[in-house]
Amino acid sequence: MLSSAFPRLISRAGARVQPFSKARFTSSSQSTTSTPGFFGSKTAIASSTLLATGSLVWYNHLYGINLLPEASANSAGENGMHPTRQPFEHYGPFETFNHASIRRGYQVYREVCSACHSLDRIAWRNLVGVSHTVDEAKAMAEEVEYTDGPNDEGEMFQRPGKLADYMPAPYPNEEAARAGNGGGLPPDLSLIVKARHGAADYIYSLLTGYCDPPAGVKLAEGMNYNPYFPGGGIAMARVLFDGLVEYDDGTPATTSQMAKDVTVFLNWAAEPEHDQRKKMGLQALIILSTLTAISLYVKRFKWSYLKTRKIVYDPPKPARHGPL
Amino acid sequence: MAIENQQNAAAPAVEESTSLFSSLVSFFVPTAHAEAPEESEEPAEEGGDEPAEEEEEEEEEPEDVAPAIREECEKGQCAEHVHHFAHCQEKVEAGNGFPGEDCVEEFFHVLHCVDACSAPKIFKKLA
């Protein structure tokens, strides 16, 4: 069958095989092995060995020695305690953020967290209509001095902040932040809820989870024990204590209340579109369910005359002089 | 919740709109306005007074509900985990554990149980 499909191939293959079969019969003679070609030579063996060793050495030089064991997290302590799902109000599929909580959480961020953590991606204008009125946001922005310029003389100048300005950072750069915190870098909090496993649950658990280390745990100097932090040793110390801030709305500022509020605030900072997204989800649900209902109705309507018709066979009346 | 918070600000705007259609629409689609109401000074003063009074009233720090609830969970449904953890602590602190032994896993089991038990109870008490 193959030969009929590729007649030319078969004939050529046969031509190639011929000298081989001849060689097999005369294998006792040395003439065929006397010219083994390049791949049979000692040079080939030596150079291929050199290539293999050289590439291995080069790889290890570039990327580190890959035969050494890598750092890995295998124990429960190294992975950190998995945070329990906290019943936040905004977790429901159609629930919005608790905006009173966002407002309190902003206060906690401003009075406590902002001493070390920046919030680069949130501008004053973002607070407007979410947690503060436009006047309140303007007033808060004006309390901060921003460098602007250059002016007509080409010099930078200081001016009070405006709504378009972003939240001021506590440190001018990463090095300053590390130097001020014993080598640990306080991460920017704009997207921290999205940037950590467990999201808001993790932030809440971390803030309320500081405790004494269990027996046998050795902490590096300057580290604090937190079971939710992978490895257990965290450079940040516990910061939230009962009565640390005083809420405008009179809510008692307990540790768990502040942790909840600041977590909701940070969740809003990471997902400012959250409320709108869920609203659009409901809108999409309305449109799709309506269209589904309409299409089902239209289908029934269009098919109604087909479904309700009746095919009747009316046999011809027997002829008067038929067989019966 | 946003709507609830801002409704005080939105209420005058709703009353002002004379058109039947717009008031009908705003009934079904309440709109929150970012701008502070015109008479914002009065509420600000009121707001300023209230915390001041509360300051005088509650001089002592507010007490967190969480530790009591967690302790209750430790004594209740998580007692078994706490028992194992205490046993491990005793053993390791006395130096009877194998080299490098710690009680992290036992502690995590306690935490896992206590967190699940206490989270809904704590959040019920939070604003």
TrEMBL record, chain A:
MF terms (GO), sorted A to Z: heme binding; metal ion binding; quinol-cytochrome-c reductase activity
Localization of this protein: Mitochondrion inner membrane
EC numbers for this chain: 7.1.1.8
Named cofactor requirement(s): heme c
Cellular compartments per GO CC: mitochondrial inner membrane
Cleavable signal peptide: none
Protein origin, superkingdom: Eukaryota
Transmembrane helix in keyword set: yes
Listed GO biological process terms: mitochondrial electron transport, ubiquinol to cytochrome c
Residue span, Cytochrome c domain: 100-302
Catalysed transformations (reactions): a quinol + 2 Fe(III)-[cytochrome c](out) = a quinone + 2 Fe(II)-[cytochrome c](out) + 2 H(+)(out)
PROSITE patterns listed in its UniProt record: CYTC
Family from the record: Belongs to the cytochrome c family.
Name listed for the protein in its UniProt record: quinol--cytochrome-c reductase
Source species: Kwoniella dendrophila CBS 6074
UniProtKB/TrEMBL annotation, chain B:
UniProt keyword annotations, A-Z: Disulfide bond, Electron transport, Membrane, Mitochondrion, Mitochondrion inner membrane, Respiratory chain, Transport
Keyword Mitochondrion (UniProt): yes
Location relative to the cell: Mitochondrion inner membrane
Membrane topology: Peripheral membrane protein
Region of interest: Disordered: 31-70
Residue stretches of biased makeup (Acidic residues): 37-64
Gene Ontology, cellular component aspect: mitochondrial inner membrane
Domain of life: Eukaryota
Principal location listed in the UniProt entry: mitochondrion
InterPro entries per the UniProt record, alphabetical: Cyt_b-c1_6, Ubol_cytC_Rdtase_hinge_dom, Ubol_cytC_Rdtase_hinge_dom_sf
Domain Ubiquinol-cytochrome C reductase hinge, residue spans: 64-126
GO terms (BP aspect): mitochondrial electron transport, ubiquinol to cytochrome c
UniProt key word Ribosomal protein: no
Pfam families the UniProt entry points to: UCR_hinge (PF02320)
Family, per entry: Belongs to the UQCRH/QCR6 family.
Protein name: Ubiquinol-cytochrome C reductase hinge domain-containing protein
Species in which this protein is naturally found: Kwoniella dendrophila CBS 6074
